[in-house]
Task: structure prediction
Amino acid sequence: MKKLYALIAALAISSPFIAGAAPQKYVITLPSTDERSIQGKQEALKVETERLTALKKDVDQRIAKYQDLLAQVQEALKQFNSISGQAAARLIKVYETMPAENTAQTLAGLDDATAVNVILMLKPRKAAAVMAAMPHEKAVAISSRILSLGKKIPSR
Result:
């Protein structure tokens, strides 16, 4: 660095082109180490800002895409639940019109969770007749599952 300053001092000469003019010195100023450091940091900050802006844009696009997908899934689920609810209501009407013995025999062949759901949707008189016609073990299993449902619901 000292050699550079010596070279700059040697170049500080008077102008030979202007006769009688006062000698002029040419001084070359170099950015200081602090200025170069600041400029480097500013450039790095600019690059990082651009990178983060691009990432934010990508994340925003993904969020919008997933929100659209979520809306589609919720709509499909809503339609499924509607159709499923309609099918369940129709099946319950079928069970309501069947003789209790036939309904009991059908429910005895189902898993306990499904049988519980059906029993809970039947009218109380029909449910009582079906439970009475059902094998004792199955009726006990269904009754205990129905009672355990009440324990899972928090009370206020």
Q: What stands out?
A: Residues 119 and 127 are 6 Å apart (CA to CA).
